[in-house]
Amino acid sequence: MHLARAAYGRPSTPARSYRQIEYDLFARVTKELGQSERNRKRDFPGFVKALNENLVMWRTLAIDVADKENGLPQQLRAQLFYLYEFTSEHTRKVLKDDASAEVLIDINTAVMRGLRGEGDTP
């Protein structure tokens, strides 16, 4: 019984909401992308890795919002899917050195503001 209380009694950290988890993911990926953008000349493989992590995050989000069982409003789902498409295309331009990753960072930051309830989501 003592083990059960220790395991299930009082959680040491409160449960986090999906929004908090999503925010934390966006924050981590965006921070890595920003740092790697500044070091892209010295550490191009690290920059590519950060771009890929950002794209994987967006691809996963796109798959989620494309699911008809997703509970978000249809218009928001469509906007998020469009942002995935833009992010994917812009990432290709960044890799060809035809664009900056700053736009990707700005998009992620806007989504983070939305997840925090600090304004309109994309």
From TrEMBL:
<dbReference type="InterPro" id="IPR010845">
    <property type="entry name" value="FlaF"/>
</dbReference>
<protein>
    <submittedName>
        <fullName>Flagellar biosynthesis regulator FlaF</fullName>
    </submittedName>
</protein>
<dbReference type="Pfam" id="PF07309">
    <property type="entry name" value="FlaF"/>
</dbReference>
<keyword id="KW-0282">Flagellum</keyword>
<keyword id="KW-0969">Cilium</keyword>
<keyword id="KW-0966">Cell projection</keyword>
